[in-house]
Input
Amino acid sequence: MLTNFDLEKMVDTSDEWIRTRTGIRERRIADPDVATSDLALRAAAAALQAAGVQGPDIDLILVATVTPDMFFPCTASLLQQALGASGACAFDILVGCTGFVYGLAVATSLVAAGSYQRALVIGSETLSRITDWEDRSSCVLFGDAAGAAVVGPVAPGHGILAYSLGNDGSNADALTIPAGGSRLPPSAETVGQRLHYLTMNGAEVFKFAVRAMAESSEEAVRRAGLAMRDIDIVIPHQANLRIIAAAAKRLKIPYERFVCNLDRYGNTSAATIPLALDETVRAGRIQPGHHVLLASFGAGLSWGTMVMRW
Output
């Protein structure tokens, strides 16, 4: 665990500054020998147990991450053997913080089409590996985590009802890792210039996030044939408390219906929504018949929202 007080000793910041601007108090950091696939495997095992199924029952594995163990093979492929899901289709989704919702949408479509019976969707990140710990504006935001869910056939009228996915590439450079790919391959120069760390235009991302989350939530709710008053629980991407509050105000949904746990975990990218969903279910806040709204935004800049009936 890395607290705000720990960060005070690392960069020019303070607990009060971080809390008032982000709502974050602490975040979890993976041990040096723990990779993204290790966290994903733990989350996958917990999801399989909760769903009452085993690895061989899974025929599709999707991992949402921007911090894969390596470029290839994909992280999902690394999990396949460990899970005993022999022959399962396996691939990664790289859209940043929206990745888990994108993964759910892809899995839902493929299961509904009859292509697969059960899918395992995982959001797993070790953002501490791409965080510039000398940049006080960004290093206070991120943490490491993983969450997972099993997608399969459900009774009519339940499960995922509708979703809204999209992207605005005109502002793609607002959230990026400049080097490491084919545009700027790794070199002594790119390492020296610290171009392999995450960079973010916080003001631009904030403005985009509030608008995108609100508009796509309205679209997803409309597609589900519901109204905002029908939404019982909202699980937003856990990036910034001010963004969540602004989205709640714009959507006219009471703030107490929003789930917030970023004070304990920070922004864990694709892991935030499955992590918050799991905690909310375990706390008993989500009951059968509840309408749940998942709302995310991320690199791209992208958005992804989804409505489900529990």
